[in-house]
Structures are given as structure tokens and as C-alpha cells.
Specification:
This protein has 6 helices and 6 strands. It is an alpha/beta fold and 169 residues long. β3, α3 and β4 form a beta-alpha-beta unit.
């Protein structure tokens, strides 16, 4: 089950702080797009995300987008943010994570993946050997395959939260 557990979790990506990244030894973030930076298939990120991205970049945190989505979705989004990207990432396979970390010039241990899905974002980061940060989705997707994944994630999240609760005690 540990392969499905994130290194840490926060409500939204903009809740990731510089002290948190410093404690993790992280210098770069690999960011999912849909339901991590914006709602599913929305062309622009949430305003709080834009502010957070600016703060991260101003502090020297390197950023790159990694999405399973097609280039026609990812490229315009990345251009609006001025970020490099990897489309068709084939998450949870570790290749996209390795390429993204290499594009930022960082070792995998100095790079964390941020995403909203356990079976793609978190599993992929863990398979690549990098820290992972789980965020809550902006909204629950109406599509059956996503609803099924979210249902299956509930048991894993329950186990993860129990483990985290024991670690704090």
C-alpha cells in the first residue's frame, strides 16, 4: 500500500509552502494540471494558483508541467504560465517524471510531484523514487472512470490518514 501513499498532502497546491519544500529538500516541482492547478479542461488556472506559482518562481523553485493530456491541451496552458511541459506523460510510468526532473536540471530526490490522483500522480512519483504531494481536486469529475478511481482512492486515503495520525502521536 505504501506505493500509493504520498510523502505529504495539502488541501490545494497553493498550500505548499517554501518551508515545507525546504524541509523536504525540494528545489523543483512537477505539476499536474487538471484538478491540481485548475478544474478539468479549464484553460486558465485559479487566481490563487497564479500568485503561488509567482511566489515559487521568485523563491527559485523550478517548475514544470507533466500531464497525461494531449499537447493541444497542455501547450496553451503551459504558455500562459511561461512553463515548460511534458504532455502525454503516460503517468504512472516513471519516464515522464524522469524527463521532467532532467529538464529542470534536478535530481529526482530534489524534485517533488504535485497532483490530485493517487493512481497516476502519486504512484508515478513513488515509482520514479521522488517525493510526492497529494492535493484535493478542485472538483469531482463527472466521468465514470474518474468517479471509479476516486471511489477506489477512498480506502487508500483512509489508510494513509490513519498512518499519518499514528506518526504524529
Amino acid at each position: 500500500m505504501a506505493l500509493f501513499f504520498p510523502t505529504t498532502s495539502v488541501p490545494k497546491a497553493y498550500d505548499i509552502t517554501l518551508p515545507m519544500l525546504g524541509a523536504m529538500g525540494v528545489q523543483g516541482l512537477i505539476l499536474d494540471i487538471d484538478n491540481t492547478l485548475t478544474t478539468h479542461d479549464h484553460p486558465t488556472p485559479d487566481e490563487r494558483i497564479l500568485t503561488w506559482l509567482d511566489q515559487m518562481q521568485a523563491a527559485g523553485i523550478r517548475l514544470i508541467l507533466l500531464s497525461n493530456n494531449r499537447p493541444s491541451r497542455v501547450e496553451p496552458f503551459a504558455k500562459k504560465l511561461g512553463l515548460a511541459f511534458e504532455a502525454d506523460g503516460k503517468k504512472p510510468l516513471p519516464g515522464g517524471y524522469r524527463r521532467a526532473a532532467a529538464a529542470m536540471g534536478l535530481d529526482l530526490r530534489r524534485t517533488a510531484a504535485v497532483g490530485d490522483q493517487i493512481f497516476t500522480d502519486i504512484l508515478g512519483a513513488n515509482l520514479a523514487g521522488m517525493p510526492s504531494i497529494l492535493v484535493e481536486p478542485f472538483q469531482i469529475e463527472p466521468f465514470f472512470r474518474f468517479r471509479l478511481k476516486r471511489f477506489l482512492e477512498k480506502k487508500i486515503l483512509c489508510s494513509y490518514r490513519k498512518k499519518k495520525g499514528r506518526e504524529k502521536a
